[in-house]
Amino acid sequence: MSFDGRLFSWINGLAGHVSAIDGLFSGLADDYFMIVAMCLVLVGMWFGTRSPEARERNQVAVLKAMASLGIASGLVAWANVIFVGSGKYPGTLIHEIFNRPRPFDPSSGLAVNLLFYRPTDPSFPSNLAAVVFGLALAVWLMNRSTGKWLLVMAAVACFARVYVGIHYPSDILGGMAFGVVGVGLTYFLFWALSPLVRLLRWILKALYLAG
Amino acid sequence: MYQTVETSSAVLSWEYAILVFAAVLGIIQAAVANAGLRGLLFAPGTVRIRFWPSGRRWTLTPLHFSYLFVAVTVLPALGFFFVWNQYNETGIIEGPEQAGLFVLSTAAAGIFSLIASSLINQWRLQHNHTEAQGLEALKDITWFQALWRRWRRKNR
Lengths: 211, 156
Prior knowledge:
The structure holds two protein chains of two kinds. Chain A is mostly helical. Chain A is built from nine helices and no strands. In chain A, helix 4 crosses helix 8. By secondary structure, chain B is mainly alpha-helical. In chain B, helix 1 packs antiparallel against helix 2 (62-82) and helix 1 (9-35) crosses helix 4 (95-120). Chain A binds chain B through residues 19, 22-23, 26-27, 29-33, 35-37, 39-40, 43-50, 52, 55, 69-70, 73, 77, 116-117, 127, 131, 204-211, and chain B through 1, 16, 20, 23-24, 27-28, 30-32, 34-37, 40, 74, 77-78, 81-86, 89-90, 92-93, 95, 98-99, 102, 106, 110, 132-138, 143, 146-147, 150.
């Protein structure tokens, strides 16, 4: 068995012993819970600082986090369409990687404690990991104190996805890589389109919605 | 562990949108109370309660009200999201739709907060003045007052 499979079996093997802990991780692995919670943190950052300078900096971080979330999610969808959906790469390694069945699929040969519904899309990469790490990293680069908590939330959500049996650890790493690329592209776009960003901030400030 | 209920996609979308609306409304109140943006608060100001016969006093500041508001909006909404997949196993809101609904609900909650807080604080803050720009101005005046003063300055 591969290291990935062994690590998955070890983490997923923790499930099924204490129902309260299983319930907790099922909730943390939810498709909506953690991403909504992290977006609520962004809403709080937009308004919730006393110093106007710190607030303006936070608002830029929020804009970057939103852009990064969208770009990371778009990259994952694009990669799936290109490497799996287009049918251009059948039988190649890249197609096999991006078309990998979920761990609970009988072809994996693993004994899985499945605590979640059965997603039908391929396992690699984890879309949630791409999105939450993209968001958290974008904030962390501008605001370490809030960013580190967002990174913790992202890590917990990703661990929970392995714990409930719907992702391999390498899916999470793949998702994180997409998130990092998303943040890189976001920072590049914000640098390249800085006059537009400044205009957007000026409009929002003129309407008393930012600043 | 939980009972699964099949729900139509439109109902799921509405559920999601309403829960996000409630949660964002609560978070905005907590954040503006923390930042001292009085013009955006729903709370009427500081309320002092004196208990009889003990004479004990409670002072409820806008921050206390905002925490109460969080308790009745954000916590239940997050609770629903926590068990969402267990109740709605067959109904999934796809990523792009989820993002669109989140943005729409957040915008709706933001607009509702701006309008409601402007109406609630209209008389309390009507004699205040500020030279501050952007959100910072809403520490002393409401959003409607800020827009009105800008429009008057421009047309003077």
